[in-house]
Design goal:
- Helix content is 37%, strand content 5%.
- The protein is built from 21 helices and eight strands.
- The chain is globular, with a radius of gyration of 24 Å.
- It is found in: Cell outer membrane.
- Belongs to the SusD family.
């Protein structure tokens, strides 16, 4: 979002005081609450401050998958290992954590009476979009939360309000997004949110909540939510504006997609985060160089062979006794997501190249031997501290396609035509065999989800896992599917075969597996908050 002016300083000034009488004392030739909110352009400028929140450049998004069965960090994740105490304060419920929602409500409360024009319509849609975006994070973390539509002060009764139901929160988020969809444009030359970004977020919220209610047996019409998700995704697909990016090279296109310096105009970018030298840069490439984590054995074994069959059934599988053999005859996304020796590891400015011998087990690089390659640029210029300008996806069409396939399967409506424009469009990029509605095999290594699901849904979930690895969404998937017990599988904390022992690398010596507890599906509310507000109930198990 190179052309957007970030107005954090302005908003910080506006939000430091809630007393309108005091603010009106400022001279009229200075920015104040009393003289700022005059035109749609004012609201548009104000809304620009929220764009950095869509993709925090300080956060290496692959690290979110350390909570899941996809990755194994060098040190045990305290939350998923049941070593997370109820915090006394903070914990995602602090004043700063609610501040973005308060800032949105602050502006929304000042729209009435301002003459409507194109800028005001755009800003109003953006603000409603952002409120839904921020509340979605609250829902995923805590479940039921108070729904707040007004900017509060120290005397507001809402400060001691109880938590609203999931249904209330979700309905309000979807209403915000319906408003945004009606008011946002189809395209934006300024890289601002569009109606298609709002449709994508609506689909993601409805899919998340619909499957959460289904698998956690929460009251509410989960089928209706799944239908809303399907409808939102269909509008994006049927617009014809997006497609799977490909240059026709199945051996490199998937890797290249995530190390591009310019995603503006990329057909897979529903909404992208753009970076520019000396303006806004990130440190993710450097962090991927020393990530203190790596893919798990369980994740690596989930890749199909090039015949479209799983390793337990395919005659093409070469086994894992030799590290390089694991990549032979496998889905090309595997060698474009996981480093192997034949690929350059570092390319220096003088043209020299270094390669990393594999398997390598180093805690500060990769404890499992399965180094995260996706999103990692080997060029030395991108490894310099906080100077990388490779762009990132906020909403990616490829992820939307696997989401749409999943929701259609959940509804019992996943036809071959649906598969061909979703999963199979992604497989075409890497020239993998198409998935059929009649899968054609029973994989003995399909996860034990805790309840029976169809072979087709099993394979769609596999496709989602592989296509979106290191994008930070696997933990959310496990939560909504109520699949936390998958973390008890010993292979989710193991690495590649260790040549010294001929056994899978043990990441945490003396620990064979972890024990899951269902309370981890939701975070606890900090003790200070329940003490200050006796109407707040604690989440189950805490």
């Amino acid at each position: 979002m190179k052309k957007i002016l970030f107005t954090g300083l302005l908003s910080a000034f506006l939000l430091t005081g809630c007393n309108d009488d005091f603010l009106e004392r400022f001279p009229e030739d200075k920015i104040s609450d009393g003289n700022f909110w005059k035109t749609g352009a004012d609201f548009k400028m104000y809304a620009a401050q929220f764009y950095p929140n869509l993709f925090d450049a300080r956060l290496a998004w692959y690290s979110l998958d350390n909570f899941s069965d996809n990755q194994v960090p060098s040190s045990r994740n305290p939350y998923t290992w049941g070593e997370y105490p109820i915090p006394s304060s903070g914990g995602g419920w602090d004043k700063a954590d609610w501040l973005p929602i308060r800032k949105v409500n602050y502006a929304l409360g000042r729209i009435a009476g301002v003459p409507e024009d194109a800028n005001l319509k755009l800003a109003h849609g953006e603000l409603r979009f952002f409120r839904a975006f921020f509340y979605f994070d609250k829902l995923k973390k805590f479940g039921e939360v108070p729904w707040i539509e007004k900017s509060l002060d120290t005397e507001s009764e809402a400060l001691t309000a109880p938590r609203d139901s999931r249904e209330t929160v979700v309905n309000n988020m979807l209403a915000d997004l319906d408003f945004a969809i009606q008011n946002l444009p189809e395209t934006s030359g300024e890289d601002r949110v569009t109606q298609f970004a709002a449709l994508t977020l609506k689909g993601d919220i409805a899919l998340y909540e619909g499957t959460f209610r289904k698998y956690h047996k929460v009251e509410g019409n989960h089928q209706d939510l799944l239908k809303k998700a399907a409808d939102a995704y269909e509008k994006v697909i049927n617009s014809g504006r997006f497609q799977v990016w490909s240059t026709g090279n199945p051996e490199k296109d998937y890797f290249d997609l995530f190390v591009q310096y310019e995603l503006k105009g990329n057909p897979e970018g529903i909404l992208v985060q753009r970076y520019i030298t000396d303006k806004r840069m990130h440190n993710n490439v450097r962090q991927l160089g020393e990530p203190y984590t790596g893919y798990s054995k369980d994740f690596v074994e989930s890749y199909l062979c090039t015949d479209g069959w799983p390793i337990a059934l395919s005659p093409l599988y070469k086994g894992d006794a030799n590290f390089a053999d694991e990549f032979v005859n496998r889905d090309p996304r595997m060698q474009q997501s996981i480093y192997q020796t034949k690929r350059p590891y570092r390319i220096f400015d003088d043209g020299s190249i270094t390669y990393k011998p594999m398997p390598e087990f180093q805690n500060n690089y990769c404890p499992t031997g399965y180094f995260i390659l996706k999103g990692y640029s080997p060029y030395e210029r991108d490894r310099l501290p906080s100077t990388s300008t490779t762009d990132d996806f906020i909403f990616r069409y490829g992820k939307l396609l696997v989401s749409y396939a999943e929701v259609k399967a959940e509804l019992g409506e996943c036809t071959q035509a649906v598969l061909d424009k979703t999963v199979n469009a992604l497989r075409d990029r890497v020239r993998m065999p198409h998935l059929k509605t009649e899968v054609g095999f029973i994989d003995p290594n399909w996860p034990n989800w805790g309840m029976a699901i169809s072979p087709l849904l099993n394979e769609i979930r596999r496709e989602r896992r592989l296509e979106t690895c290191a994008e930070g969404i696997r933990w959310d998937d496990l939560v909504r599917w109520k699949a936390g017990k998958l973390l008890e599988n010993p292979k989710v904390i193991q690495g590649a075969k260790d040549p010294a022992t001929k056994a899978n690398r043990v990441i945490y010596p003396g620990v064979d597996a972890r024990k899951w507890t269902d309370k981890l599906y939701l975070y606890p509310i900090p003790l200070q908050e329940t003490a200050l507000n006796p109407n707040l109930t604690q989440n189950p198990g805490w």
